[in-house]
Amino acid sequence: MLDTFQNIYKENYQTVYRVAQKLIRDEDTVADIIQEVFIYLHEKMEEGKVIQYPKSWLYRATYNKSIDYLKNKNRFQTIDTFEDCLEDENVLDESDLHKEIQCALSKLKAEEKFLVILYSEGLSYKELAEVTGIKFSSIGKTLSRALQKVQLELKNKHYELY
């Protein structure tokens, strides 16, 4: 059991970290969330629960822990991120573009943001449906709407994604 857990940890730590970081953006909190997720996984495995798709399970657990954190903190992180967007109107380089994309993402609902983040991590529509609980038949439309919101926000700031 310990070997299985260690393998899951090694194979998925970086991915779980990236997802939590994109949702929370505070390094200390991200570290806490990742620790909680892997402790929870270890406890479930000790109870004898078979995790058939560990990567999907970890995505969902990371999402749930992150959303719980945001709810408990009254979404101040999202507000701070939005305020950061207002600081600089002249965007000139790639790091500024990255910042603008993060600002646009911060305006999405948490579920939409999570969907876009997972999509950017390379998950298939089937995996997205599994992790998010959104019907497979609705994933494309839901993702498209979220990406359109991001595109519109960037277009309003004079960026074109494609």
Automatic annotation (TrEMBL):
Can you name this protein? RNA polymerase subunit sigma-24
- Which range is the signal sequence, renumbered to this chain? none
What InterPro entries does this protein map onto? RNA_pol_sigma-70-like, RNA_pol_sigma-70_dom, RNA_pol_sigma70_r2, RNA_pol_sigma70_r4_t2, RNA_pol_sigma_r2, RNA_pol_sigma_r3/r4-like, WH-like_DNA-bd_sf
Stated family = Belongs to the sigma-70 factor family. ECF subfamily.
Instruction: Describe the location of the RNA polymerase sigma factor 70 region 4 type domain by residue ranges.
Output: 99-149
Tell me where on the tree of life, at the top rank, the source sits: Bacteria
Source organism per entry reads Labilibaculum antarcticum
One matching Pfam family is: Sigma70_r2
RNA polymerase sigma-70 region domain location is 8-75
Q: Which UniProt keywords apply?
A: Sigma factor, Transcription, Transcription regulation
SUPFAM superfamilies hit by this protein: Sigma2 domain of RNA polymerase sigma factors, Sigma3 and sigma4 domains of RNA polymerase sigma factors
Enumerate the Gene Ontology biological process terms. Answer: DNA-templated transcription initiation
Q: GO molecular function terms here?
A: DNA binding; sigma factor activity
